[in-house]
Structures are given as C-alpha cells and as structure tokens.
Write a structure and sequence with these properties.
The chain is an alpha/beta fold and 219 residues long. It has five helices and eight strands; from the N terminus they run βαββββαβαβαβα. The termini are far apart.
C-alpha cells in the first residue's frame, strides 16, 4: 500500500525573528549593552573621534569617549532553533539621525538608554518612538559617577505616560541587560491590539529627523 505520513507528525514551524532597537544619546552605553548581551561577537561600526567633530558632536559629559558609532551596532540572541532576536544599536549623534527610519523598520520595540547626568539627550529618541507608536522602555544606565534617582523621578523628568516602564540597569552586565530586554518584550506584548482589532498604523516615514521639542521637568 502507498506510504502515508502519520497524522501525528507536527507541522514544520517556520523560524521567527524579533528585532529590537537600542537607542539613546551619544556615549550613553548602546554599544556596551549590545556587546554585553549578544551571543556572537557584535558587529560594530565605531570610528575614532577626530578634530572634525569639534563643534559638531556634543561631547559634554563624555570627554573620555574616543570613538563613535557611525552606522549601527548589531548583536544576536538565539532562544530556540525557531526563534532569534536581533539587536540594532542606533547611532547617537544628531548628524546620523537620518538612518533611524531604516533601522526602525520591522522592530517590535526599542530600549531608550538614559544617563542621569545628561537626561535631555534621550528626549529625541523618546519623541521618535512616541510619534511612530513603537513600544519602548527607558533604561537608566547607572554610571559609577552619575547621581541616582528613583524610576518615578526619571519618569516625571522625561514626562512619560504611566504604562511606559522605567528600569535601572548596568549596561556592562549581561544579566542586567537581559532584564531590560525582558521588560521591553513584556511591555510590547501588553501594547498589542486585541485579535479582532487592526494594529495602529504608523505615520508615513518622510526622512525627517527626530524631534527635540520635549522639555525636561528637572530643575
């Protein structure tokens, strides 16, 4: 008799990928976080800062930084054979903001890294993801010499809506970086529309740079 496949054989599961952005201001720790959590040697596009950046890049508060990301950082985390997470770190300087639309395409959410010494540097990222209905969390990178604030104080200073998580982290530590990603995925799942409701449409991408109109509430 002819061979018939068993009805109990499970259907083949197609591999799934998840894309997450790591955003924030210049020198806030994006490259460090991707490197701490990635299972592969991360792809980095760092170049040495030169005298040509004087008057162009704002290096106040990060005088020890000697390199800058000029395109993106890239890392990978494999959960199962059929589920992989890709991490894309965005360039922080204003002159590279034109690349954000390409990097954000298809992302389920974003981590906005913040430094309490230069909190206003995260405002363009917050405005960008808010304007495009992309779920995000604020991750305060706790630098050794940075002042410490409660998450609710940071939330008030950045003027965030209540559902948006604010988490404290150390971007150098794998476990801490993992907890940030978990918080983002959980938040992204909570923002999904009901099955019978169509997803929110994102505004058309017109290549405009992130807006910087957000005002700090700190004194």
């Amino acid at each position: 008799m002819p061979y018939r496949p068993s009805d109990t054989v499970e259907a083949e599961v197609l591999p799934a990928t998840v894309k997450i952005l790591i955003a924030g201001g210049f020198g806030v720790g994006k490259t460090t976080l991707v490197g701490a959590i990635s299972e592969i040697r991360p792809l980095r596009t760092e170049e040495l800062l030169s005298d040509r950046s004087i008057g162009v890049d704002d290096t106040s508060g990060v005088h020890r930084k000697t390199t800058t990301t000029v395109a993106m950082d890239f890392g990978r985390i494999t959960f199962r054979a059929d589920l992989t997470m890709y991490l894309f770190g965005t360039p922080g300087q204003e002159r590279f903001w034109f690349m954000w639309d390409e990097l954000a395409s298809g992302a389920i959410g974003a981590v906005v890294l913040a430094d309490t010494r230069r909190l206003a540097d995260c405002f363009p990222s917050v405005d960008y993801f808010e304007n495009r209905n992309i779920p995000f969390v604020i991750a305060v990178n706790c630098f050794d010499d940075a002042p410490r604030y409660r998450p609710e104080d940071v939330r008030s200073a950045v003027d965030l809506e209540d559902p948006i998580p604010v988490v404290m982290c150390d971007a150098r530590q794998r476990n801490s970086s993992r907890d940030v990603l978990i918080a983002l995925v959980e938040h992204s799942l909570r923002t999904l529309p009901p099955p019978d409701e169509p997803p929110h449409e994102q505004p058309p991408q017109n290549g405009r740079e992130p807006q910087t109109g957000r005002q700090s509430q700190t004194g």
